[in-house]
Amino acid sequence: MPEFKIQHITKYTYDNFVRDSANKIILYPINDLFQEVLKHDLTVTGHPQVDTYIDYYGNQTGSFTYIEPHRSMIINSQLSVITHPRALPIDDMFAAEQWNELYNMRNVMPYIDFLKQEYFEGLSELRPIVQAERKIEDTPYHTALNFSKYVYKNFEYIKGVTTVETTLDEIWKLRAGVCQDFAHLLMVMLRYVGIPARYVSGYICPNKDGMRGEGATHAWAEAYLPGYGWLGIDPTNNCIANENHVRLAVGRNFSDCSPVKGVYKGSAGHTLEVSVSVGYEDGLVHEEKDIFTTSSHAPKPAQSMPRNSYAKYMEMIQQQQQQQ
């Protein structure tokens, strides 16, 4: 039963005074049998009232408006959580019986939402790969593991080449990305064969295991398995998401689980800094920081990202090819 202390700081710095910053935050960790929240403190600059509610997908969500003129705003989330391991699927049902059960669930709520594919032109190219990776005798469980292995082996983990606005087609062409990109690709494959799949946001907190995305915000997928329920699968590390993964929210995609998003009034551009530190049982602290800058002369979403670095990467590749 590992215990983790996590601090997640979101800081906005504006070029000039802005006001009426209205935000929605999903920074409240899930509290259930496998994740015990010992303490959670959330503070916001100016101390606005934060109203909370449970959204459609069962996530605790907060909303607030920082009305006064300001040139910076900090959202500081600090939590202590104990995670409990979850038993893996026994997988003793016949494969055909499990696939038939999934087929009968295709029009049942809430699984409809997690079976609907997002727009993806590359699906025609992915289709034969999915068919090759799915063996006739495999159960949904083993099929999901095979898909995770494919994403892990065939897509390179590179920070900065994608943003939250990068499309599935861009990720598919680049064959690279980060955890949220890997999760989205895995969900496409799972949904294609009729396995409900949902996006999970949170943190990965390994104890010196050197896993991708450790000590930072992280994302993975959950697949619904007959006779078991939702199983977390982390294609970024090609592993089952278990006691080293701390869950914040679930949804159809990143947009449903975005930790912070909103709008403000003012013509100033802003810089967004996100830092996450994880304290381990042995006292070790791992910290990651990302900085994003945007300029603006009109109201902008509070969580704005830089120019798509995928485009920059492709321009570089094309220039190299022309020089050869």
From TrEMBL:
SMART domains for the chain: TGc (SM00460)
Domain called Transglutaminase-like: residue spans: 171-237
Highest rank taxon of the organism: Bacteria
Pfam families: Bact_transglu_N, Transglut_core
InterPro entries linked: Bac_transglu_N, Papain-like_cys_pep_sf, Transglutaminase-like
Protein known as: Transglutaminase family protein
Organism (species): Mucilaginibacter achroorhodeus
